[in-house]
Amino acid sequence: MKGKRVGIVGVGNVGSSVAYSLAMSGSCHEVILRANDVDKAKGKALDLSQAAQAARKHTVITVAETLEDVRDCDVVVITAGSPRLPGMSRDDLLIKNAKIMKDVVSVIKTSSPNAVIIPVSNPLDAMVYVALKETGWDRSRVLGMAGILDSARMAHFVYEKLGYGAGQIRCSVMGGHGDDMVPLPRFSTVAGVPLTDLLTWDEINEIVEKTKKGGAEIVGLLKDGSAYYAPAKATALMVEAVLTDMKQIYPCAVMLDGEYGYSNVVSGVPVMIGARGVEKVIEANLNDDQDRKFAKSIGSVKELIDALYENDFYAK
């Protein structure tokens, strides 16, 4: 195993749920929580520690008084960020969260210099770009959580349509974490049976559209928040893959370096995750239609990256 200390920066619903998932699995020895409200973090740490005791797990939950105390971690998960507030433009949200990401990562790269960083904050693909830019690390050590979540949402909608196969559905989603994500029915199966053998294309296209709007649907129903159980579990799976050197293949947001014909842009693609982070980027054989959709998704992420430069983010 590479190590067993995980830092979580931002302990709202997603961050605390990641901590809970890790504590219940017993996959790491220590989880360090960091939040601006230290007392709130201490309260959650107490609750989580007691849950670990109830489950008879060895995981210890501690609190970092300062960001510098998130030290010597093997993995650091970053969920800190602002939601989009009334009157806030897309670029306003982008710059605000990019600044938060930059400030966090500027400390983490010194306090946990050997860590793998997993950004979860939105807009996800741009946050991975900012984290890589700030650390100067190899792209293998910064990977964003999105593809596992989007694939799980697609799997849910497949089950909803079929009415059977729960736990046996394997779906694949590529591209940016947004409206231009690229669900891949051709690479999706139920107990090994291709999805295209079980559903009509009209049914599949309906599932694809529901997948793209999966997060917004939850926001609409909750009215005062967004999803956190599924994002947290997806993040925990990535953490566990690093800690246990699992060599698992998951769709994650990574910097492309020639794969699929793109460079210097972040997008969700299948990768193999091991102790060193992303140990292999896998190039799926896309057909012409999938290529076009992936290109559109790449274009949307490039717009976000361009907006960072247009707003002089790197000059501040």
List the defining traits of the structure above:
alpha/beta; three-stranded antiparallel beta sheet; 13 strands; globular
Walk me through this protein's architecture:
By secondary structure, the chain is an alpha/beta fold. It contains nine helices and 13 strands. The protein has a five-stranded parallel beta sheet, sandwiched between helices. Strands 6-9-10 form a three-stranded antiparallel beta sheet, with helices on one face. Strands 11-12-13 form a three-stranded antiparallel beta sheet. β1, α1 (13-25) and β2 (30-34) form a beta-alpha-beta unit. The chain is globular, with a radius of gyration of 19 Å.
Structural class: alpha/beta
Provide the gyration radius in Å. Answer: 19 Å
Order of strands, main sheet, comes to: 3-2-1-4-5
**Low-confidence blocks of residues:** none
Number of helices in the DSSP assignment = 9
Largest sheet features = 5 strands, parallel
Which range does the strand content fall in? 15-25%
Portion of residues in helices?
Answer: 40-55%
Instruction: Give the SSE order as H and E letters.
Output: EHEHEEHEHHEEEEEHHHEEEH
Number of strands: 13
- Let me know the average pLDDT: 94
**Roughly how many Å apart are the termini?**
40 Å
Overall spatial form: globular
